[in-house]
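Record copied across here:
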Amino acid sequence: MPLFLSGGVEEFCLFPLPYVACNVIGVEKSGNIIIGVAGNLFPLLISFMFFSKHFWIWYIGFLLRVIEIISFIFLSVMCILYRCGIKVEKDDAVAVLETWNNGWLILTLLSLILAIIVFILIIKEHPMKKCMKYFNIK
């Protein structure tokens, strides 16, 4: 995402944990907010690519959506902690909130709404039925 907003790649690593460190000094405020929030939204978009009838592909998407729910709840908690004056060092949510002074309420509500939507989508998939059917459990 930083590359699309005129940020330069400083470091790129695939192993042991993949990451890209970018220089975002020249990026505007709105760009920094987009970069910070994209860390939560991008995996959600990827998880929607895994709707399939093949069990293991579906299961990967299911796990990604569960992780996204946890991520959105964590984002909401970080926003509330920030509002209460507790700042966690080097957290993306804190970086976004320091850039976007009055955005804590919008970001908290948005993340909770997205967590609820993803939760409802998971419930509609009937994951227990799919697992029981695949493993022939009655």
